[in-house]
Amino acid sequence: MNRSPQNHTDILQDRYGLKAASYLSAGTADLPYDISERLRAARAQAVAARRIARVHAAPATASAGTGPTLSWGSDEGFSLWSRIGSVLPLIALVAGLLVINSLQTDKLVQELAEVDSALLTDELPPDAFSDPGFVQFLKTTL
Hints:
Layout: H1 5-27, H2 33-62, H3 80-121, H4 132-141
């Protein structure tokens, strides 16, 4: 059973309309003749407007064809500048991410070089490097 979402929506709208019409029709038994005739004419106009709206909506969806995809080779007004304009933000995003990655890597390398140079230029005995307290000292001071 293949039902499109639009078809399902139309069915639900029709059910709601029938239910509302039945409630309205049940309440018209106590109304005078002239009011009930005006209500009947208004209902007929509403049904006719609904049919016209449905007839106009069907060809618009049928002529859409492929759907909302971007077609690079079609003649929908996509000139060279609009194509460049649609790809340019993606290029800027990738370039920005590469620059951020490079800066973060450089910062990490610089911090490690500072720690290494501090360790190599300081006068420490070789046993200090294996001491766990010394590692904690380095973390708090640098």
